[in-house]
Amino acid sequence: MALQGKVETEVEIKVPDDKFYNIWSKQAHHVPTASPNNIEAVHVHDGDWETEGSIKVWKYNIDGSPKVVKEKVVLNDEDKSVTIDWIGRRFVSGIQSNEDCPSC
């Protein structure tokens, strides 16, 4: 039996909101430099670095296991909120399954 739906969470971080918002809206390509042990690379799949709705491909690892995910970021300039939509991933009982991302 497969479940389908939307998973949402809030994460508390200790960084000024304008700095966090700026990273996701304009400087996502710097994230692998800040966390090289977990995030190997990020590149633009469709669009560009700064346009909302552009699709980026992230290569990362969890406990040494390589993963790939596509994401589309939705930005809200008014309240500086960031919504990250993962494309082509499935969640089962709160744990991300290991699906291939064939066009990455």
TrEMBL record:
Family matches, as InterPro entries? Bet_v_I/MLP, MLP-like, START-like_dom_sf
A Gene Ontology biological process noted in the UniProt record is: defense response
Extract the Pfam families matched here.
Bet_v_1
- The UniProt record lists the Bet v I/Major latex protein domain at 2-104
As for family, the record states:
Belongs to the MLP family.
Official protein name in the record: MLP-like protein 28
